[in-house]
Design goal:
mainly alpha; 86 residues
């Protein structure tokens, strides 16, 4: 099969699934954040969610590190007392 003459017409595929379904372009979580006044724009909502993801990953890493690799218990210092003989 000769594949040199195959071409695609990209103009036919310019629909986005959100537009076809009748949904807005702003994700639902971002709309909820905007509705509650936590963020003002879609870009702030995206950055807020990325921050939440980073904090969650950091907390997960901390919990896994402390659970899987606990710190070695400290040994009690050994004190040698000299024996007194009379």
């Amino acid at each position: 099969m000769n594949t040199e003459n195959i071409s695609f017409d990209d103009n036919k595929f310019k629909y986005q699934s959100r537009n076809v379904a009748g949904q807005s372009d702003v994700p639902a979580i971002t709309r909820m954040l905007m509705r509650h006044g936590i963020v003002k724009t879609e870009q702030q909502g995206t950055m807020f969610m990325i921050g939440i993801i980073v904090l969650t990953l950091a907390a997960t890493g901390f919990v896994m590190r402390t659970t899987l690799f606990p710190a070695a218990p400290e040994e009690a210092p050994v004190t040698i007392t000299p024996e007194v003989t009379n």
